[in-house]
Amino acid sequence: MTASARPSDNQPPSPEGIPTGTRAMLFAAGLGTRLKPFTDHHPKALAPVNGKPLLQRNIEYLRQAGICDILVNLHHCADQISDFLQAHEDFGARITLSVEQPVPLETGGGLLKAAWFFTEAGGPFIVMNADILTNLNLPAMYRWHLAHQAMATLAVTRRESSRQLLFDAEMRLSGWQHVKTGETRMARPEASASQPFAFSGVHIIEPKLLQSIRQSGVFSIIDSYLDLASALDIRGYLHEGDAVVDVGRPESIQEAERWFH
Prior knowledge:
alpha/beta; about 260 residues; about 25% helix; Spore Coat Polysaccharide Biosynthesis Protein SpsA, Chain A
């Protein structure tokens, strides 16, 4: 495991669509309160699905897409994750750890803390929640991101979710809504129409976007996307038919085990 990642040259996209040297981040710092009692003594990222921890599954998922340089942020039971990766020689990847103390910084704060890892390499990078399992075709999403010249691309599907992102007819981010409470936040009020989609927890981001984020400390990257959507091209990538499981509750592990063996 590396204390810091070594620079990698961003070469032209391979036939699979993702350039050699592309970097990724896995969010693994959360407290995982919905997954109690497991998370009373373990990090959520090490919850097993058919005997294989979530973190391992997502490292292998990224490796299959050709991504070797991965940053993992840590907070809750950080030593367990560090020890797990060391014991398995990082599963053939080059892992960099970003420890968040005294509190987890959420997705936005955690990403800003790790910004050096992505600006150092240049080129679009991948971000994933460690507790999301999906069979999304990541190279196809990467090609779509490049073709549309977006500053950030968010994987979405039509499925039930208490929180939905809103997009216009061209899949540009236009707002957010909480289905149960009716709370709505419009990022681009001028958008002619808004379609709701559930976020799949996978992003492709241009490093330049990080320079535009105005928040600091503990905050959600979704708040930043909504803040920036009127000025920057932030899009949704619809990947219907793929499996997407948010392994945030004990019952969702059973669902994940039906899809991921």
